[in-house]
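Running log. JK asked me to keep both predictions on one page so they can be read side by side. First protein, sequence followed by its tokens:
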Amino acid sequence: MQKHPIFAGIVMHSDDELEHALGASVVERQTIHQWPLSCVQRMRLNDGTQLIYKSQLPPTVEAKFYGAASSTLLPDHRRLGRLGDCDIMTIEWIDAPLLRDAVRTDDELTDHGRQVISQIAEIRGDLPTYLNIGSSDAWSVVADTTIERLGKLVQTGHFPSTSPDAVGRVRLWTRSTEVIDTITRNPRLIHGDLTAQQVFVTAAGYRVIDWQRPVIAPPEVDLVALLVSRRIDPRRYLNSTIVGVFWFLHLHWAVEAQFNLFPDFRGPLFDQWSSQAIREILR
């Protein structure tokens, strides 16, 4: 076992441990993404295999999700168990273009996005989720808790870019009939953080990665996420209420990160996430 050189909570297998687990030795190991909750590495083994290695701290449910899900959307994977508080898995290296590189127009991206969302709805299994906003009661719990914590973060100076008046306006938005109707019309499993960098276009169909925080919510939220990831205004294709739901989930994550995950963090990042989400909700 080895500790991450920067983020103290993240632990990973040593090369020797990986050789024992995978049956091949590690020739190359390169970190391609890291932050305080996860580390992602690209590995090449001596038998020529290439893999993604992921060590993740809560609140991710990705390893459990892969273990429970049945779908051709998901790449091959293997759960390597837990080290400390980290859930660890390997995922096949996908040698195919990303959706961001496979389309030329906004309309093309939107068409692909609708197809991906339709296939996400077909994933089978007893699937774990990070969050459920798929009923009026579930939405009320999430919305009220988020607004309450947002208000506290504004009061304590953690979110200086947000005013108490803005908090109140978002609270009223969450309780509007239009929002409740949108939330409860057709909720189902969604990716929760779908971007054009997480969808591969292979000869055998789409592959979708990064299932850390799947949600029960209206499926169009994933399409909003996909369009926003390419800086496309989603209001060209979707109504403003569903766009607001996407941004509320973004606000929820900013509040959760500051309030629970990193309460001692005093930088501007989560404040910026929050203020951007509020602007878009109230737009």
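And the second, directly underneath as requested:
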Amino acid sequence: MEYTNMMELKFLSKSQNESFARTVVAAFAAQLDPTIEEIADIKTAVSEAVTNCIIHGYENKIGIITIKAFISGNKITIEVIDEGKGIDDIEKAMQPLFTSRLEEERAGMGFTVMQTFMDELEVESTPGKGTLVRMTKYIRSDK
């Protein structure tokens, strides 16, 4: 992957770090001069990805979440990585309303939200080793 700028952030999988993570990524994306709507889209997608790591990847145990972001031209690619339990069936997990945590009344819309707010979404996962969610947004700001 060729890029003109990049950043990496590591933090504990605590729910209070979710807003910190989305703010850091939004600040990094700001150099592309995105619209307010584009920033909101990025923040929402990052929030969903980080929340998935906390709730599903680590199942409310403490682990490390890594976020990497890469800028190339008018594109930002964001990777949210955990070393948690992984996903057994990615295709099934990406279906709207699917949740592995029925007892917590989860909506099962995390991946759907990420797909809606980002231009591209890829998920790589190995059971027992963790998950990588790669999201790409093309900034079309014409300011």
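Observation for JK regarding the second prediction: The CA atoms of residues 9 and 67 lie 5 Å apart.
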